[in-house]
Write a structure and sequence with these properties.
The structure holds two protein chains of two kinds. Chain A is α/β, with parallel strands linked by helices. Chain A contains nine helices and nine strands. In chain A, the strands form two sheets. Chain A has a five-stranded parallel sheet with strand order 6-7-8-3-9, with helices on both faces. In chain A, strands 2-1-4-5 form a four-stranded antiparallel sheet, with helices on one face. In chain B, 53% of the residues lie in helices and 16% in strands. Classes of the chains: A alpha/beta, B alpha+beta. At the A-B interface, helix 1 and helix 2 of A face helix 1, helix 11 and helix 12 of B.
Chain lengths: 236, 419
């Protein structure tokens, strides 16, 4: 395994609005490759903001965010978009899918923005077959892949399609923001199992943000926002 | 490529709003192209009506009225000029040929033109094309009539058929010249000019028809002169409506025109058809510009409607944009998506408009030809129309930049946060 940490944050601070409001400050955070980490904290504690820094959607105003050894501040905006496309899979709380595309097309969509990822995905056969294989391993019915519209899927099924999309092309890092909170408790367990199994099989780094600490037992590590943010973070 | 596919599928998923936007663009494009079709067809139609005639001479009056009544057979010739004047003018040394014309009668709404053989010899249309006969020949007998192609086809007339002309120019006449029927001696080939809707008889025949009429009123029964009896009479008319003139050298037109306009014996007007046609054209051109302005406004309104549609969709698509951002699409690609959507709608709308106007032209061409005598030009868009189409598509794409810039900023500020 590569010695580079998957995620390395040092002295990073970020504010959506420089004049007033919330400011996120993180002294140091390291997540190794293949680690499965739960990020908890009450709502408003900055989980989503941290995730958007890691995804490279926003840059810290000071300090640095390194992903797989790459300092995101050294990349231009389009390079960051491209870097994300190649290395990171993202799953949101809900409504992850493009409503006007088929299930399989939704899974394949990120490959159109990432050349290397597309190559990786097509190593073992056709892309179509790869997408279907992933969907089947998520427990979805193959008959629905092409005929059923995305909107007809249940929330749980949509989340599984989104996970398949995040995983395709063997992404090194999966970032998920409250991926289970729209599901009922049974489904939560199921979906989490699925994520864990897939992550373990591929050696994927998993960073999941959730306000729900009950999930913590399955993870290698639990990070609470209050532990990783600096003491002076919230007074600004 | 993926942007094109996304744009296409996204539009398809909103097909109803897209269809309405498409329709409004298509209709306004059809309007603009249609006006241009009518403009170029009219211009073509106007300029090919008469050629080779150097001067048209009529009684003192408005030059445009003279042009309209003699060449386009529109309006009533109010005055006339005397036979003596015609003789004087025809005798001028510069003159190569002259054709006398008299209007005043009709047949089922088609005008009757009294003239001489010189008309068939000297009248030219289009690019100096002479009149030719589809069947038969020029009038030889006093009661022979030559009919235009449209009349033959519309009224199903054949050679040798007897027809009755009517007094006056109305479509429905209450004063038929039933006592002196004319025989169809010739049918002209189609010219795409008003000649197609004209009946030509000899001046003498026209005179014979009216020989027993008194001051525009039908003769009393006891004063009637039979058709056969007129053959023995002097049928030289004393009045004419107008004269077509050909000169030996074109350079003389201007001086002769001035001389005729200053004629002392009888007040006259002489016009040069080419210049008069240009005047007529510029007169109509003003109206055309007005129509074009309106059509241009309609297009601006349609494109604004499209921008409004895309703008309205932005808020509900912020989630879609965040998803696209999360899988690696940049703000520029998301902006490009919207520009592509706008370009696609404008392109499709323009093509639809082109199809609409082509279809309408094909469908209504014969009707328009029947009613207005105007043959529409059918075919690929002409230079003006091509420029118009390209401008509309470009304008549509440019208009797409407005919501695209908004989307660019939204997706930058939203990042991957779904709102």
């Amino acid at each position: 395994m590569d010695a580079q940490p998957a995620i390395l944050i040092q002295h990073a601070s970020f504010a959506w609005n420089k004049q007033a409001g919330y400011r996120l400050a993180i002294d140091a955070l390291t997540i190794q490759q293949g680690e499965r980490v739960l990020l908890t904290g009450r709502s408003g504690s900055g989980k989503s903001t941290l995730l958007s820094l890691i995804c490279g959607a926003n840059l810290p105003q000071s300090g640095q965010v390194e992903i797989l050894g790459q300092n995101l501040s050294q990349l231009s905006i389009s390079e960051r978009d491209h870097f994300r496309a190649e290395h990171i899979g993202v799953v949101f709380q809900m409504f992850n899918l493009i409503p006007y595309m088929s299930i399989v097309d939704n899974v394949l969509l990120p490959l159109s923005f990432a050349h290397e990822r597309k190559k990786r995905a097509s190593q073992s056969g056709s892309l179509q077959a790869k997408a279907e294989h992933l969907l089947i391993s998520m427990g979805l019915e193959p008959s629905a892949f092409h005929t059923q519209s995305v909107a007809e899927l249940s929330v749980g099924q949509q989340q599984r399609v989104a996970l398949a999309r995040a995983l395709i092309g063997a992404q090194q890092i999966i970032i998920a923001d409250e991926p289970t909170s729209a599901l009922d408790p049974d489904r939560q367990e199921q979906f989490l199992d699925l994520m864990m199994t897939q992550a373990k099989a591929e050696g994927t780094t998993l960073l999941i943000a959730s306000h729900d600490r009950h999930l913590s037992s399955r993870f290698d590590r639990v990070l609470d926002m209050s532990e990783i943010t600096s003491a002076n973070a919230e007074d600004a | 490529m993926i942007i094109l596919r996304l744009a296409y599928q996204s539009l398809l998923s909103r097909w109803l709003t897209c269809l309405l936007t498409l329709a409004s663009i298509a209709i306004s494009v059809a309007l603009l192209l249609g006006i241009e079709t009518i403009r170029s067809s009219t211009r073509d139609h106007l300029t090919r009506t008469i050629s080779g005639t150097d001067l048209i001479i009529g009684p003192r009056g408005n030059g445009l009225t003279l042009l309209l009544s003699t060449v386009f057979q529109l309006g009533n010739p109010e005055n006339s000029l005397s036979w003596q004047t015609y003789q004087d003018i025809a005798g001028q040394p510069e003159i190569d040929w002259s054709v006398p014309l008299t209007f005043g009668d009709s047949h089922h709404g088609f005008r009757v033109l009294g003239t001489t053989h010189a008309f068939f010899e000297h009248y030219r249309y289009g690019e100096n094309q002479p009149l030719t006969f589809a069947q038969g020949q020029a009038f030889n007998d006093l009661f022979d009539v030559v009919i235009g192609a449209d009349i033959a086809s519309r009224l199903q007339y054949k050679l040798g058929q007897n027809i009755v002309l009517s007094h006056g120019l109305g479509e429905i006449s209450f004063m038929p010249h039933s006592d002196k029927p004319f025989k169809v001696a010739g049918i002209l080939r189609k010219t795409q000019t008003p000649i197609d809707r004209t009946l030509l008889i000899s001046l003498n025949g026209l005179e014979a028809m009216h020989i027993d009429w008194q001051a525009g009123a039908a003769p009393r029964p006891d004063q009637r002169v039979s058709a056969e009896a007129t053959r023995a009479m002097d049928l030289t008319p004393d009045k004419l409506s107008a004269i077509f003139i050909g000169l030996k050298t074109k350079i003389q037109s201007l001086s002769l025109q001035r001389r005729i306009n200053d004629n002392q014996a009888e007040p006259l007007t002489a016009i040069m058809p080419g210049l008069a046609l240009q005047d007529l054209w510029s007169l109509m051109g003003n109206a055309e510009s007005g129509f074009q302005l309106i059509a241009g406004m309609a297009i601006i309104a349609a494109l604004l409607g499209m921008v409004a549609m895309i703008f309205a969709s932005l808020n509900e698509r912020r989630r879609e944009m965040a998803i696209l951002r999360s899988i690696g699409a940049g703000p520029a690609q998301i902006a490009a998506l919207l520009v592509v959507e706008a370009s696609f709608i404008s392109l499709l709308g323009s093509l639809l408009g082109l199809g609409l106007i082509t279809g309408a032209t094909l469908l209504f061409n014969s009707w328009i030809e029947n009613v207005y005598g105007l043959t529409l030009i059918i075919g690929w868009p002409n230079a003006t129309q091509s420029v118009e189409l390209i401008m509309i598509i470009l304008a549509g794409s440019l208009a797409g930049l407005v919501p695209a810039m908004r989307a660019y900023h939204l997706s930058l500020s939203d990042g991957l946060m779904i709102r």
